[in-house]
Each structure stands twice: as C-alpha cells, then as structure tokens.
Amino acid sequence: MKKFEKLKKEIIGKSKNEITRLARDGLMEEICTILREAKSNVEDNGGLVLTVCDVAEAIFRLNVELMKQELSENRFIDLLFQFFEVILPSQFMHQYCDHLSVFIPLVKILDKLYLKKEKYLNPLIRFLDCKDDIEISRILFQLIAILSPVNETGQIQQKDEIRSFMENNGTLDHLIQIFLHYQFTNNIIGKGLCAIAIGFLHKAMQIPDEFRGAVIEKLKQTTENKEKFPLFFPQQSANVLSRLAENCGNHTNIISGNFAYILNKCISDTDQQTQKHGLTLALNLLMFGSEDVEQKVKEGVPIERVRNLVTDLDLDDEIQLTASLLDQWITIIS
C-alpha cells in the first residue's frame, strides 16, 4: 500500500515517457497482480485496489496507448471487473465509480462496444441492490455509459443488441421498478437516469403502455430544461428519444405537449452531440411517422439553423449529412 501511495504522489510530476517506461518495466504487471489477488479478501484489499487504480488512472491519462495494450491482452479492465464481481452491494464504495468514470470513456475511445458485454455489465447490475440511493445513481451513470453505443449494422429499426440479456436476467424489470417506485434523494436525477437506461433498451421498440408516457415525459423534461442539468442529461435524453422515434408506437407520447419547442431547442443547441441527436430525432419521426407527426416535426425544425449546419465546415461530417437529409425532407413535404 505504502509503495503505491508514494507512487501516486510521485507520478504527478513525471513525463509521458517516464510513465510509459515505468508501466512497461513491470508496474502494470504489478497492478494487475494486485487486482488478481484482491478478490480473495475484498474487505482487507478494497483500499489497496483504490490506490492502485489511482496510479493506473494517472498512467492511462498520460498514455492511452497503454490502455489499448491492456485491452488487447485482456488484463487490467478484465481483472478490475472480476474484482467488482466478488464485491457485495453492501461493500460497494463510491470511489469505484470515480475510477470507472475515467476508465470507461478511455476504453470507449479505443473501442466503443468493448464493454457492452455480459461480463462487464453483470458486476454493475449487482450494485443496483445498494441501499444508498446516491450510489445507485452513480452506478446508473456507468451503466448508461456502457449501454449508449450501438453496434450499427445498417439494418433499419435495429434493436439494441444487449436488450435480450438485460430482459432475461431481470435487469430491465429491475430498472422499471426503480423508475416507478424508488424514492431517490434527488428524484429528478435518479428517475432521469432510469428513464435513459430504460429508453436505450427499448430502441426501435414500443415502450409498454404502463410506463411509456412517464418515461418519455421524463426524457422530454430533461431535454426541455437542459440548463438545470449537467450536459450528460440533455445529450443522452435527446439520444434516447431519437432511438424511440424508430417505432411509431412511441410517437404520440413523443410529439405531445410542447414537443415542437423541445425539438427546436435540441437542433439549435451549441453542443454538437445534442444537435446531432435532435436532427436524428426529427429524421426518424419523419421516416416512421404519420402526416400528423410530419406536421409536428415541421413546426419544430428551425430550418434556417439546419441549413447553416449543412454549410458549417467546422462540424463533423455526420452532423452535416444529417442536417442535409433533414433539409431535403422538410423541403419535399412543405
């Protein structure tokens, strides 16, 4: 423990080359050995695991290629999740999520679907049985980060590939029960996270009548009142709505109320991810919707803004292409 506590302080002042040399000269091997052996006694080794994860975090932040090497050898991330698998919900510490909030994005940079597998989801699913609602919210953040990428195959109305697993093992129902009945200290955040997770798992599917309205309304509220939330919430809520729009059974709830205002707000947003999801939401509603849905979309699309996006060379190609398609579609139905 003392060695890694000292390393944690020393590593701050080291260069990328020094860190890389340390990692390749045995430090990463030592970290992996500790993770491998820590499973035998979680109570005694939890603090040591947190400390070596602090060191690993500093290493990977400086050189993401070292994370790439660990993934190719199925070492650090696999061992970390194997350690999580033997932790009881009562032994969960919030610092574990602090590390995951760094490790998961780094892994997704290298391979966005790497973690979207049963062996990585299972440990986090177990932690949903924690007694502390703040911890449940933190776990939901990490689950959503893993669930959000889609394995695009080009198939129209493609369903989420992990849904069957999440349904068969009872996790989807567990999320629904948390959403409907659990009282969070901060219900706006907790219920919002549940709605996002449930929505991702219903991509291109009609959400059941019993909770469809409540889930979609929560997503719309988050998108509408984006100033009250961290950026993650409006981004992912717009993302989920765009996926739910692939099934016409969700359209009535999506376009109800002040939907036109919400759509306008998404597409006009300064955040590129929110823009992209807003554009995709509009396109999916037009592609799979009725004439009434078309009218609602027309009311909400800020067409001049869309045309500016088409010609904005500072944007990524996907946003420009999506904006161009939406512009053409609106022109055709006008």
Name some characteristics of this structure.
334 residues; ARM-type_fold; mainly alpha; single chain
Could you describe the 3D structure shown?
Helix 5 runs parallel beside helix 7, helix 12 crosses helix 13 and helix 16 packs parallel to helix 19. The model has no long low-confidence stretch (mean pLDDT 94). This protein has a domain of 79 residues. The longest helix has 23 residues. The protein has 19 helices and no strands. With 334 residues, it is mostly helical.
Number of helices: 19
For the largest beta-sheet, the strand count, sense and barrel status come to: none
Helix content: over 70%
Q: Quick check: average pLDDT?
A: 94
The dominant shape is: globular
What is the N-to-C order of secondary-structure elements (H for helix, E for strand)? Answer: HHHHHHHHHHHHHHHHHHH
Q: Give start-end ranges of low-pLDDT stretches.
A: none
Number of E-state strands: 0
Report the span from N to C terminus.
68 Å
* Rg (C-alpha, Å): 22 Å
Structure class: mainly alpha
Strand content: under 5%
Could you provide a short overview of the structure?
With 334 residues, this protein is mainly α. The protein contains 19 helices and no strands. The model has no long low-confidence stretch (mean pLDDT 94).
